[in-house]
Structure formats: C-alpha cells, structure tokens
Amino acid sequence: MKKKRFLSRLFGTMTIPAFASLAAVGMALAIFFVLLVIELTYRAIFLDVHISDLPNPPVVLVVEIIVALGGAAGSAYLAASKFRNSLERFNDFLMDARADGATDLESMQFAELRRLRAGVTRTVSKLRRENALLRETAFIDPRTGLANMIAVDKAITETLPLASFEAPAALIVLDLDRFSRASEQLGSYASEALLAQAGQRLKDELAGIAGPAGVALRDSTLAALQADEFALYMPAAGSREHVATIARAIRQAFAAPFELNGQTVSLGISGGIVMAPEDADSAQKLFRHAELALRLVREEATSGFRFFTPRLTRVARGKYKLEDELREAVANREFKAVFQPKVDFKTGKVVGAEALARWRRHNGKIISPAAFIPLAEETGLINQIGEQILEAACQSARVWMKEGLDVSVAVNVSPRQFERGNLTDTVMDVLKRTGLHPNRLELEITESMAVESPAKVAEVMGPLRMMGMKLAIDDFGTGHSNLSMLTQLPFDVFKIDRQFVSALEGDKQAPAIVEMILAMAETLGLQTVAEGVETERQADFLRRRGCTMGQGFLYSPGLPHQAFLDFLRAFRANPQPLDSRKAG
C-alpha cells in the first residue's frame, strides 16, 4: 500500500510534459536496444563471412559497431521525439478538457497511454519481422533463387570441422562454358533468364541422383556465385568416386541445349573439385584450390572436371610470380616488336611485314611468346601489350613510308582485345599519334574468332576496313568456317597456317588442302599469305598454284626495327624475283 501511495503521489504531482520527457527517454532506450540488436545482426551476417579477408579486421569491426550504434541511436531518437510530441499534444487536450469542465481525466490519460503502448508494440513487431526477412534473404541469390556465397560459406564453416579422411567433404566450383558468347548474342536481360535456367537444371539434376552418389549429396548446398559460376558443397561426400559420379551427371545434364525466347542456346559446364580435409582445411582454401583446378581445365582449352592436386599449387605459385613480372614489364614497356617480311611470290619484293611481340627483360633475356601470351590473355594484360606492339608497328611503318618503301605492316588482334569493345578507338588513336595512313595497316584475327563472333567482326572491322585498312584471317584452315560465312565478312587476306605449309613435302593430304584454300581465295578475290615457308620447294609449290605472298625463315626470321629497315634497303637495292630461283 505504501508503494502504491508513493507512486500515486509521484505521478499524481508530475506534469504531463515532465512525464512525457521521462516516458520518451524510456521508450528511446527500449527502441535503441532493439534496433542495436537488429543492426548488429545484419552486419554480423556479412562480417562473419568477410572479416578475415579485410586488411585490418579489428578496426573494421569497431567501425561497424560504431555505425550500428549510430544507426540505432538515431532511429531511437526520432521515435522518442514522436512519442514525446504525442504526449505533449495529449497534455494540450487535457488542459482544454479541464477548461470545459471534464472530470474523467485519469481514465482518458490511461486510455491514451494504452494506445501509445499498442503503437510501440506494433513498431517492435514490424522491426522483428523485417529482421527475420533480412536474415532469410541474406542467404539467397536473387538471380537464380539458389543459395549465395554467404550461405555456402556458412555451411562450410559449420560442417568442415566434422570432415575426416574416412568421411570427407567436397567442393565443386562450376563454370558455364560459352556463357559469355551467349550473353553477347542474347543481351543482358535474356542472359539473366538463361542463368536462372542453368541454375534450375543443376538443381533438378542433383535432386534426381540416387544411390551412393545421392547419399553424398545429403545436406549439400548448391549456390550461385559471381557471374556464371556455381558451387556445390557436399559435407558428406563419402569418396572421390561418388563425387566423380556426380560431376559426370552434371556434365551430362548440360549436353542438351537450352530454349530461350524461341532460340536454342548450347552451353557446357566445367568444374574444379577439391576434397577436405585432404586438400583443404578452411573455406578459403577450398575455394582457392577448386578454382585452381578449374583454371587448369580452362588453360587446356577443354571442358570437363578436374580434381585438385598439390602440384597445382606449385604451378600457381610460378604463374603468380610470372604474372607479377609481366605487370612490371608492361609498366616498363619491355615488350618490343620484331618484323618478319612477307615476300611477293611473283616479284620477289618485300611488300609487307608481320609485327611479332617479343619480351626482352631488363637483363637482356628473351622470354618466348609461348610462355607469356597465354598468361597475358588470362589476366587481360594482353590489351596493354597489344596496344604497345600496335604503336611500335605503326611507328616503324611510318619510317618505311618516309623512306619511300611501299611496305605495309600486319598486327595480330587477340580475342581479349577484340572482346574489350574499344578496338576501333584504340586503332584510330594509335594511327593519329603515329601519323600512319590507314592503308598501311593490316589487322589479323584468328579463324576461330571469326567463326565464333561473325556479327561482332563485321561490326568492329567494317568501319576500319572502309578507312583503307586490310583485314586478314590468321591460321586459316584450322577452324570450322564455311564459304557462306566468309562471303559475309569483310576480309582481304587468307593466311595459310604453317602446319599445312610444313607438311607439303611429306603429307599427301596437305597439298590438296592448300590447293583448295588457294582456289577458294581466288574465287572470293582475296590475297593469300603462306606462313612458315622454309624451303624453296615449298615456295615453288605455292607460287605455281597462285599463292600471293610467302612468310617464313626462307626469307628472314623476325628482325628488330633497325635490322628490318636495313633488310628492306638491301632488297630495294637488289631485288631478286623468286621466279628466277631454282626449286631446291
């Protein structure tokens, strides 16, 4: 009774504004703690996954907590301010009621407080629902409806400690074959739909696997990663044989094409596989090793699946070292152009040259293109290397032109340069800087590039060709092009691949193939260049069958700028028509 009388006297004598302030403070504290829990929960979802990858985890953690405190405090302050304003408006109402002679103020006061309490309860309930929804959607990939990277990382973290050599876990990182090309043709919206279809096909295929392999999929997580990659984590993989069975089933599932907006799209799928704890003991190592295995599949220009082995780590270390050296070489402009002459079969004159990239280290050591070109393609450094070689080639051709030498220069365009999308601007910028006329430049692309992206070739090369540049198909005869496709593309030159030229003297089929290519070129009104000419007999065979030009060690290896200039001057002073040479 004493306690009730004390509270009655306390609140009975308290004015509404004072009570409003006290209640607002209490409400602010309550909402502050609710929002703080929600903020920290939200951030923990992401911090739990990425904190180990950050440069200074403790600092980041403190910053995140401060941000969470600030967000909760700000929201609580706004809510409390609204609550206090409501009570003050209620006080004004009471004053008006007293003026009108109303007497049942106490019941009115508590009725208003009950309504306010109900409002607070609804707000807190809404925040709890939003928090639950946030936690649910934080683990879903919106493009495919599958789990996302956060979900698979969480699954690995929770179950990997339970894996053993007797009961191993496994991770497969999957990558769709030819998805980039399909996206280019379909557009971004349709490619998202195609990605969703691929994810659903994966899900359906895994659901249909039975037997021991099906047991291996128990409690597994199928997740969509970045771009066109997926991951399949199996905490109860059982054995390599079970995982291999699952990999074969996945590959077979993608043998059938996809149907999208009336179009048929063919995709393949490749994967890198790692077993735990044999080859990895953390989520980070699992993904790194699986991606190494997948990269090896890609480098071998194949599709399929490959298990990780420790040897791949050693290979990767060597590649990372070479990549660092490659980046340094690009920055220091260590890549130089050498020029291999192209000789007219009828006149014996040098009428052109192909610019070839050479990497000369600061210590004078020459690195073979076979050692650095694939890595440059993979890392994208080929774009800078290609531009440096293009500029060097155009500068040299400008010198030849000033000396009155009628010699054009041919430069290879890599697939990465072509896909980048700014090739036309790059070429035009280099021509402007060097002052070379467009009709002195020839661009070479491989036959496989022409086959895979004919529309893109026409779009990019068409305007350049209209300015006077020539376009050549390199390595002709090694791809799967057809006459119909060739007539639709803006080509000027076929380059016959060296494998056919070198086989002319020992292979019965090679002469027939070369004759067919030369006849096709004549029909289309195109020039031809035979690569890898090393003997007079090869040159004589090609000349007699109408080949336009020859290129190879019979005439000269690739020469640096000054040596090639001297070579051109010597040929100009003493031309030697090939028709006067005797076949060897």
TrEMBL record:
Which residues belong to any copy of the EAL domain?
319-572
Source organism, top-level taxon: Bacteria
Q: Note whether Transmembrane occurs among the keywords.
A: yes
PROSITE patterns per the record?
EAL, GGDEF
Domain GGDEF: residue ranges: 167-310
Task: Kindly list the residue ranges recorded as spanning the membrane.
Answer: 12-38, 58-80
The record's keywords, sorted A to Z, are: Membrane, Transmembrane, Transmembrane helix
Q: Which GO terms of the molecular function aspect are on file?
A: cyclic-guanylate-specific phosphodiesterase activity
Please give the PANTHER family that the UniProt record associates with this protein.
Answer: CYCLIC DI-GMP PHOSPHODIESTERASE PDEF, SIGNALING PROTEIN YKOW
Record protein name field: Diguanylate cyclase
Q: What is the lineage of its organism?
A: Bacteria, Pseudomonadati, Pseudomonadota, Alphaproteobacteria, Hyphomonadales
